[in-house]
């Protein structure tokens, strides 16, 4: 086997470590809650049953949305977006960027493409050799172009984009619910163990259960809030720069109102909003836009990274990563 192929196999294997870590933590939390807390610690049968039923509902929804995010294949551009053979050869032979742009413009004329690069050029992926549809980005980890790409998430070892964004947001919501339910129901037993009012072999599990659930809750909450804000604004994590349309840049170009933004991700039937089943609207290629930049003055909108958005992104990322690192460190030192 060629060394590069071996390296790729190793990389692919290593990329599953965060997923394995999350699953091990979840398996342990299941054992600690069901066996150590509900069966060995809680004396009241009624309390046991209520806790177990609600816990299992949260657990099933959490695992369902988590695995749907992991196993959903990212949507890739269809063959119409690849350069036809003749144009591709012409493009490769040509060295002048202006001439290459002319070739791309000719092909893009027949495609539903309304966004451009910062300099106004057609967005082209050199790795995949295709014209990028609107909101499509190349993921260097997956080595492919992904429709409405949001980000590559190591915790699900998958690209989060058009095919699984709803599942990802639900995964954040249900993992938060799972953590908050565990933390709130464990709290009274946590205090009893902590103050030595009860002292059984379940002590270690119950103390850690509260601690881990609370830490994960804080960590996920910041990420969840950030994504709800992105959905409300119809933006993506990767799209920190304002999208540039044919008539100029507009940071709110894809915003079509809060409710409509919401339905683009969750679908127009409210009964499916909470279920990790595919209901997102659209085809991943074209997106409704508000009518903007019809006059030349609007074309002067600054299309540099919005400092406010960039600050929010950095803040949420930092809180999430610092909490996770803190959690891991304390977990390992105990
Ligand atoms: Zn690509
Ligand atoms: Zn990816």
TrEMBL record:
Reactions catalysed, semicolon-separated, are: L-cysteinyl-[protein] + hexadecanoyl-CoA = S-hexadecanoyl-L-cysteinyl-[protein] + CoA
- EC identifiers of the protein: 2.3.1.225
- Record protein name field: Palmitoyltransferase
From what superkingdom does this record's organism come? Eukaryota
Organism encoding this protein: Astyanax mexicanus (Blind cave fish)
Quote a single Gene Ontology cellular component term.
membrane
Location relative to the cell: Membrane
Report the sequence similarity comment from the record. Answer: Belongs to the DHHC palmitoyltransferase family.
Q: Which PANTHER family match?
A: PALMITOYLTRANSFERASE ZDHHC16
Transmembrane intervals? 20-42, 48-67, 167-191, 206-232, 310-332
Q: Name one GO molecular function term.
A: protein-cysteine S-palmitoyltransferase activity
The record's annotation in Pfam families points to: DHHC (PF01529)
The record places domain Palmitoyltransferase DHHC at 122-238
For this UniProt record, the keywords arranged alphabetically read as follows: Acyltransferase, Membrane, Transferase, Transmembrane, Transmembrane helix
**Note on domains (UniProt):** The DHHC domain is required for palmitoyltransferase activity.
UniProt topology in membrane: Multi-pass membrane protein
